[in-house]
Amino acid sequence: MSGFTIYPAIDLKGGQVVRLAEGDMARATVYADDPAAQARRFHDDGAAALHVVDLDGAFAGSGVNSAAVERIVAAFPGRVQVGGGIRSRADIDRWLSLGVTRVVMGTAALDDPDLVRAAAKAAPGCIIVAVDARGGMVATRGWASVSTVAVAELALRFEDAGVAAVLFTDVGRDGLLKGVNVEATAALAAACSLPVIASGGVAGPSDITALRRHANIEGVIVGRAIYDGRLTLPDALRLAA
Q1: Is 93 an annotated catalytic residue?
Q2: 132 is an active site residue
Q3: pLDDT of the chain along its 241 residues, tens only?
Q4: Which of 26, 73, 119, 215 is packed most tightly, with the most Cβ within 10 A?
């Protein structure tokens, strides 16, 4: 996959499209009741890829909003990557068989690295390792738990595993429109040979411009900035091109 990709985010809670503040389920803003319609709007605005998260599933450890995700995949003609509570080979295989392009694994990457490695070997280029950070340490289980493993350390464990990319989120900025943590994202991209996808805190056009200056950053996930009108998706796509 070449170029710099904009991934509009569809985060699901109770079947609705929401954005959280700092990963806090109690601080959710609802933006749409029909996730599939939202996916079609993103496609109409030019998106070639989507980032979808089952927030309830991330906490439950299994798919909760699976029906909504399936509708999104059916409605969106481009690439869809899905995360949230995917912690078994059966889950991975199911999503890939339903047309999901890439599966995002966070908690499993820390707790069951052999699962991630086996999945990446069986489906090369289809697994993304999510490295979510609070204070530089990896957060898991819907960001509710913080480990003693550093961000770069976890990413480096999968350099030779055949995973497609590392998704780096600064949890402390997520959904707050404070600006993406370009410095930490670039540091991870420099430390690791895997492509890095940035996430968390995108506030406007300057974030995309800043990220594009750094090698090995594949793209960025944009949520609240688009939903709140701080950045239009067509403008984001133009900056990425």
Answers
A1: no
A2: yes
A3: 458 999 999 999 999 999 988 778 899 999 999 999 999 999 999 999 999 999 999 888 888 999 999 999 999 999 999 999 899 999 999 999 999 999 999 888 989 999 999 999 999 999 999 998 877 788 766 556 677 788 899 999 999 999 999 999 987 776 667 899 999 999 999 999 999 999 988 999 999 999 999 999 999 999 999 999 999 999 999 999 9
A4: 119
If you write DSSP's letter for every residue of 65-111 in order, what string do you get?
SHHHHHHHHHH--SEEEEESS--SHHHHHHHHHTT-SEEEESHHHHH
Q: In CATH, what number does 5-240 get? A: 3.20.20.70
Domain edges within the chain: 5-240
In the 8-state DSSP scheme, what is residue 44? H
Long-range pairs, 90-95, Cβ under 8 A, ≥24:
91/62, 91/63, 92/119, 92/123, 92/127, 95/69
One-letter amino acid for residue 4 of the chain: F
Note the Cα 37 to chain centre separation in Å: 20
Residue of 56, 91, 132, 170 marked active site:
132
Partnered with residue 199 across adjacent β-strands are 169
Question: What one-letter code names the amino acid at 129?
Answer: V
